[in-house]
Write a structure and sequence with these properties.
Alpha-Beta Plaits, Nucleotidyltransferase, domain 5, 26 helices, 12% strand, catalytic activity, multifunctional enzyme, Rev_trsase/Diguanyl_cyclase
Length: 850
């Protein structure tokens, strides 16, 4: 055994020595090659430098020659002796040509030097970013590895033992005093790596009733004697542990407290006066950042303000990045109103788990509101307000389900208050919810909510809707509804707005002044109660000045109101023309109806579909581009297949119907495609298909890339992209119904007959049968034995010419067919008006809202 071990070690040493020698030889060869390359580069650089110096000297000498010639010509011209001018001009042109060639060469050298410098910089960056290479494992032998492994195991055992010792010392509170320059000693314990760490004095000198120390020592207790006793015990513990508290920062027996921006008193919680003062002194916002900063500070106190979202509606709209910043009068009023609301913010009571609690909810068509209140023996006081917009998926629910939704959201918000306490009162104006546990029919959503609600101890109580004022106001905030109908109130402010509009409008100014004078000129206009009326079409119509605010209010009254039904442009104009008159009525109504969000969301589009037909390009060669799709499921065959993979050559229209399992994985479809098409036709360059999950899987995409093919999937829910495959599948189903038996179990055996019938018939797109196009000869029939046939030539050139003629003919016919189809379809379509980046409405007919 010892001899075998010695022999093994010797062989390992020899192998390591041989490998090391090979590595050294390879390194020497590499260094020698580098040195030779460096010498060649230096020689080439030296030759290039000499050529560059010669070119520079040639430029300078040529320049001097030109200057001398120019001086001689100037002297001869002054003396009138210009002889042999043609030779001089030729000589000048020769010099200029040489200089031009030399300059071009110099410019190329400069570009090559710039490229070389760029390469050097790139190489330097690569060397700086290159990770350190690991040591070469081939240079070590077996014995070295064994020795290193033993050392590693030994050190690992030592580290584990040292760590266990340090942990045991910490658990037993064995600490040493650290040597530091501070006036007070600190206790430390050694770590397993020899470093020292500070001990936790809350474990060496714990305060029994105190959970943990924060950055500040906060003690609170409702009874003064117990509070003083705890304070004395805490100070004694600090003295024993040799810690000190800063007397200047200590406050004892406080009844009021400033905490996290709030002022906490025995009566309740209110916003901190310093923070409110900062909001009151806030200057008017100038940019979006100012608005966000203001709302960020004010939003921290929104729980104190009823209807906070309603007040800040116009300020919130200014935060949109896609619209210009315009601090209009509405935003300015919202800014001032929010300051006033914060100044008069109601004091919210601190939640007391021992007091009776009331949980009031209300829901409208577009919002929910919840109020949490407690009774102090005298009256109910609010603890917090909460309101929320109803999600889209619940906007069509009935009143009972929305009321229950408000209850669920409130429980989630105040779970830390209500979970585990004794019964609280749930107040609602929806009487059926009082008997919520006795309903016979509930859906899965309500069942899930009821599972959550059952965690709480409450009893429902019904009150009339008119008595539920707080929650009702929170649930009916106009900013939570895009279809809120605001009543058009006729008051003095409206009349004054009309009068100001008449005076500012050049079209009505003179007419209003004329009708207001004691002796007016006769006209079709008159004034009644301050409003200007015009008599036209046999009736008096109210004149509307060119004020966008007034016209928008009128359009909302006659288009958005429940009694007007959000009708279109024509009906809205007909309603308005019965009562009003203003210039530009048609344009204003058209723009308003087109921008109505409710109409866009709820009404169907009756115009022609957008987007013109763009057929796929005609392939250049046979079997270059294919289209495929899966159809089924059909009655299950005895072989287990219940679907058909249809593959169509987009140029020759040759088709294969390959039986498969309809719900098979992507791998099975690859096997079917490979065995049926690729083995006989080869790999295609393009594959057109729909967005079936199996065709879009990572496996399929990787396989297509390996084949060197490109996948062209159709758009979602747009089967027209692969129309010829869809049409082939339809034809297949029709032919199968004519051939199969009544029990429909022999459809697989009939697929070859269907395939032959399809491929041997003349296809209208190419003017011949797919088999004739693919094989350059028509398909033979059983009747060919009794029908005289033309003897075909054996000339291969004639055969190739025939194949090329068929290819050209088929491509021309397909191009004409596509052009004819495009013209027919585009008559019923509109050009697409959308551009990249536009916001568009998407039909939800194909999507699930749950």
């Amino acid at each position: 055994m010892l001899a075998w071990s010695t022999e093994t070690k010797r062989r390992a040493d020899d192998a390591a020595t041989t490998a090391k020698k090979k590595a050294e030889d390879a390194e020497q060869a590499r260094l020698l090659a580098i040195e030779q390359q460096r010498q060649r580069n230096e020689a080439a650089a030296k030759v290039a430098d000499e050529e560059r110096v010669q070119r520079c000297e040639k430029i300078f000498s040529g320049e001097q020659t030109l200057l001398t010639m120019a001086a001689d010509w100037r002297a001869e011209a002054e003396n009138g002796k210009m002889e042999d001018s043609e030779n001089k001009i030729a000589l000048l042109l020769s010099h200029l040509t040489d200089l031009l060639a030399t300059c071009i060469t110099q410019q190329e050298d400069i570009h090559s030097l710039d490229d070389a410098l760029t390469q050097v910089h790139s190489r330097l960056r690569q060397l700086e970013q290159r990770p350190v290479a690991p040591p070469d494992a081939s240079s070590s032998n077996t014995s070295d590895r064994l020795e290193a492994l033993e050392i590693d195991v030994g050190s690992l055992k030592d580290d584990v033992q040292l760590q266990q010792t340090a942990t045991q010392q910490l658990e037993q509170r064995i600490c040493t005093t650290a040597n530091n320059s501070s006036s007070e000693p600190r206790e430390t314990a050694p770590k397993f790596d020899g470093q020292e760490i500070f001990c936790d004095s809350t474990k060496t000198d714990p305060i029994p009733w105190f959970r943990k120390f924060e950055l500040t020592l906060q003690l609170h207790y409702p009874d003064l004697e117990d509070h003083l006793g705890h304070l004395r015990q805490m100070l004694e513990t600090l003295r024993r542990a040799k810690y000190k508290a800063n007397r200047d920062k200590c406050e004892f027996v406080r009844q009021e407290l400033e905490y996290l921006g709030h002022f906490v008193t025995p009566e309740g919680i209110s916003p901190l006066s310093a923070k409110i003062q900062a909001i009151q002194e806030w200057s008017e916002p100038r940019i979006i950042t100012d608005v966000r900063s203001f709302l960020g500070l004010a939003g921290y106190y929104q729980r104190f303000i009823k209807g906070y979202s309603k007040i800040t509606t116009h300020l919130t709209k200014l935060q949109c990045e896609d619209r210009p910043f315009d601090f209009r009068e509405e935003a300015r009023e919202s800014f001032v109103a929010l300051k006033a609301a914060l100044l008069s913010a109601e004091v919210l009571r601190i939640y007391d788990p021992l007091l009776p609690t009331r949980f009031t909810t209300d829901a409208s068509g577009y919002g929910i509101g919840v109020v949490l209140e407690q009774h102090d023996g005298v009256d109910w006081h609010p603890v917090e307000y909460f309101s929320k917009k109803v999600p889209v998926v619940h906007s069509i629910d009935d009143a009972r389900k929305k009321e229950l939704l408000a209850f669920v959201h409130g429980l989630k918000r105040w779970r830390h208050f209500l979970l585990g306490r004794s019964q609280f009162r749930w107040v609602t104006d929806n009487n059926p919810l009082v008997f919520d546990k006795t309903h016979d029919t509930i859906n899965s959503t309500i069942a899930r909510w009821m599972t959550f609600i059952d965690q709480f101890d409450f009893f429902p109580d019904h009150i009339p809707g008119k008595s539920n004022c707080f929650a009702d106001a929170l649930s009916r905030r106009p900013d939570h509804c895009t279809a809120v109908y605001l009543t058009f109130e006729i008051d003095d402010d409206l009349r004054n707005s009309f009068i100001r509009g008449y005076q500012a409008n050049p079209e009505f100014r003179d007419k209003y002044v004329n009708c207001s004078s004691p002796d007016p000129t006769p006209s079709n206009y008159r004034i009644q109660e301050g409003y200007l009326l015009v008599h036209t079409r046999g009736k008096d119509l109210l004149c509307i000045p060119s004020d966008p605010h007034l016209s928008t209010r009128l359009l909302g009254e006659f288009h958005d109101a429940p009694a007007t039904g959000h009708f279109g442009v024509n009906r809205t104009i007909a309603r308005l023309r019965e009562r009003f008159w203003w210039s530009g009525l048609l344009g204003d109504v058209t723009r308003y109806c087109e921008s109505c969000e409710v109409c866009r969301r709820c009404k169907s589009r009756n115009h022609h579909p957008y987007g013109e037909l763009r057929p796929l390009p005609v392939p250049l060669r046979r079997r270059e581009a294919i289209a495929m799709d899966i159809t089924g499921p059909f009655p299950k065959h005895k072989t287990g297949v219940d679907g058909i993979l249809t593959v169509v050559d987009r140029l020759t229209k040759f088709v294969m119907f390959l039986p498969c399992r309809y719900h098979a994985k992507a791998l099975k479809f690859v096997e079917v495609l490979y065995a049926g098409w690729i083995q006989t036709k080869g790999y295609p360059k393009e594959i057109v298909c729909d967005r079936d999950t199996r065709f879009m899987s990572d496996f399929w995409l990787a396989l297509i890339k390996r084949w060197g093919s490109s996948l062209k999937p159709s758009s979602a829910r747009h089967p027209e992209t692969d129309g010829q495959t869809e049409r082939a599948q339809h034809t297949t189903q029709v032919l199968l119904r004519t051939l199969i038996r009544a029990d429909q179990k022999d459809w697989v055996e009939r697929l070859p007959d269907v395939e032959l019938a399809y491929s041997s018939s003349v296809h209208p797109a190419i003017g011949m049968s797919p088999l004739e196009f693919d094989h350059s000869s028509p398909v033979t029939s059983s009747l060919d034995t009794i029908t005289p046939l033309t003897v075909e030539s054996d000339d291969h050139l004639l055969f190739l010419r025939r194949m090329q003629e068929l290819l050209v003919k088929a491509r021309d016919l397909m191009a004409k067919t596509q052009q004819r189809m495009s013209q027919q379809v585009n008559h019923q379509r509109l050009p697409c008006p959308f551009h990249a980046g536009d916001l568009v409405w998407v039909s939800a007919a194909e999507f699930s809202l749950e």
